[in-house]
Amino acid sequence: MSPNEHKPISEAEKIEMRDRVNARIAHWCSFAALVIIPACFSYGLDVGAGPSLLFVTLPTILQDIPMGRLFAIILYLAMIFAGVSSLQNMFEAVAESLLHKFSKLSRTAVLAILCVLCLGIGIFMEPISKWGPWMDLVSIYIIPIGATLGAISWFLSLIHISEPTRLQLIS
Question: How open is the CA angle 10-161-149, to the nearest 5 degrees?
């Protein structure tokens, strides 16, 4: 194994640690609901506002609390990081597939192509009001089915790999 290769277990340990940190943050965010919902009622704002809860309701609440600007900066920076990490997660599988199929392309070129394609498609999709039900169908049914099929295919691939490779993955 060359020094540039990563051991699967050490990578798994890093991912597991990041997962723990994210779980703690999600746990803290669940406590935030105990603050946001009563604040919505006290300000006479709609609790079920959806995305506008983040962009309309929270700024209204944060402007009246001590150090509200600091909390707003932290909140929106966290939202930016959440969006970027979600994009990275979605782009990773597609980029690896393209790199495997077109080995002459550089990783930077593949990511640039994906970014331009997604930005172009996203800009033209925004004004179409009938995308809501389609996006709900994709996010509620199609993505979990795809993830399940991916997990099944990964486990099936472990059956078909050689014994030394399997032992290397496990150890």
Answer: 80
Please, are residues 99 and 107 in contact by the beta-carbon 8 Å criterion?
yes
Helix (H) or strand (E) segment spanning residue 49? none
Q: Distance between CA atoms of 93 and 114, rounded to whole angstroms?
A: 11
Q: How far apart are CA 25 and CA 21, in angstroms?
A: 6
- The owner of tokens 């640039």 is 112
The H-assigned helical ranges of 44-67 are 52, 58-62
3-state secondary structure 143-159: HHHHHHHHHHHHHHHHH
The series of mean pLDDT values per 10 residues for the chain, 171 residues long, is 57 73 69 73 78 77 84 84 79 83 86 87 72 77 84 74 65 59
pLDDT of the residue at 12:
67
Q: What is the DSSP letter of 39?
A: H
Q: What is the DSSP track for 115-148?
A: HHHHHHHHHHHTT-TTHHHHHHHIIIIIHHHHHH
